[in-house]
Amino acid sequence: MTASYKAELVGVLGYPVAENPTGVMQEAAFAAAGLNWRYLTIEVKPEELPDAMRGVRAFGMRGINLTIPHKVAVLSLLDEISPDAAMIGAVNTVRREGDRLIGENTDGKGFLRGVREEAKVDPKGKRVVILGAGGAARAIAVELALTGAREMTVYNRSVERGQTMVRDLVSATSANAHFEPWAGTYHVAADADILVNATSIGLFPDVDAMPDVSLATARPDLLVCDVVPNPPETRLIQSARAQGLQVLTGLAMLVYQGAIGFEMWTGRTAPEAVMKAALAKAFGI
Ligand code: NDP
């Protein structure tokens, strides 16, 4: 057999991008699966995105992740957008089918996989409270709606952003969702099954910040989730643990969204434990 020295390429385009740890977990996964694949962490200025996407095509890259500020701008540079990415209005993962580049969004899917596989909770029929109305919140809300969550309440500081998110969500998915302005302390509703912090409150370096919520009114089986991946043990997660509540950290979401990307690109089952260990090491935990 003739040897092949050609590597398959994937990566991430962002600006800034140097602190994005995804390459660590994907490279670990490729090594564990015995794949000659490379994950490139590439800084691309906003005005260079069209050229960069032409480069993705020219290099025959198998896929690409998009991060800030490219998740929306990339929509017009693709051949097809998956239905849920279209509903979310953003693409974080591109996969290739022949010559066609297809936009997907794995953030909400990764969150749901964490809820199901790690927390062992079925989100179908559940009452969910989402804090935040940015990109992560939109992705999570769309996937929760598609999976049949019973009710979603979105709390956000900016009223306009929260109202727009819920209006888009209801019109795209017919979800039973409503918006509440987040002013002062939010006392968790006693009938909530899942609470999700989908804001950036608590993200490094602002590690002492805590969403203005009180868990005192929560039911004992409330699942408390945080999207903040670094550090995974946010103050919200610590408070929930101290109260004996079940938790799901942002590290889980980050691993599972990457695992779904790995599976879309390679067609193989992702070595999730390897990916999680690689990320935990990168975060020094
Ligand atoms: P956006 O900038 O789109 O949204 C930020 C959200 O946080 C908004 O709702 C904003 O409210 C709210 N917010 C920020 N600061 C405050 C504050 N001090 N008080 C109240 N609300 C606040 O960010 P993203 O949605 O893209 O990212 C949010 C978080 O999700 C980040 O920490 C990111 O790291 C994480 N993330 C994690 C992923 C994972 O795999 N674990 C994947 C993707 C994102 P307002 O509208 O009022 O400004």
Verbal overview:
This protein is of the alpha/beta class and 285 residues long. The protein has a six-stranded mixed sheet with strand order 2-1-3-5-6-4, sandwiched between helices. A six-stranded parallel sheet has the order 9-8-7-11-13-14, with helices on both faces. The protein has a two-stranded parallel sheet with strand order 10-12. It is built from nine helices and 14 strands. The mean pLDDT is 97. Helices cover 36% and strands 21% of the residues. NADPH dihydro-nicotinamide-adenine-dinucleotide phosphate is lined by residues 107, 110, 132-137, 156-158, 161, 199-201, 203, 227-229, 250, 253-254, 257.
- State which percent range the strand residues make up: 15-25%
What structural class do the secondary elements suggest? Answer: alpha/beta
Overall average pLDDT = 97
Bound molecules: NADPH dihydro-nicotinamide-adenine-dinucleotide phosphate
CA gyration radius, whole angstroms: 19 Å
Quaternary structure annotation: single chain
DSSP helical segment count: 9
From the N-terminal CA to the C-terminal CA, the straight-line distance is 43 Å
Major sheet: size, sense and barrel closure? 6 strands, mixed
Helicity, as a percent range: 25-40%
Shape: globular
In spatial order, strands of the major sheet run 2-1-3-5-6-4
Ranges with pLDDT <50 over ≥5 residues? none
Number of strands: 14
The ordered string of helix (H) and strand (E) elements is EHEHEEHEEHEHEHEEEEEHEHH
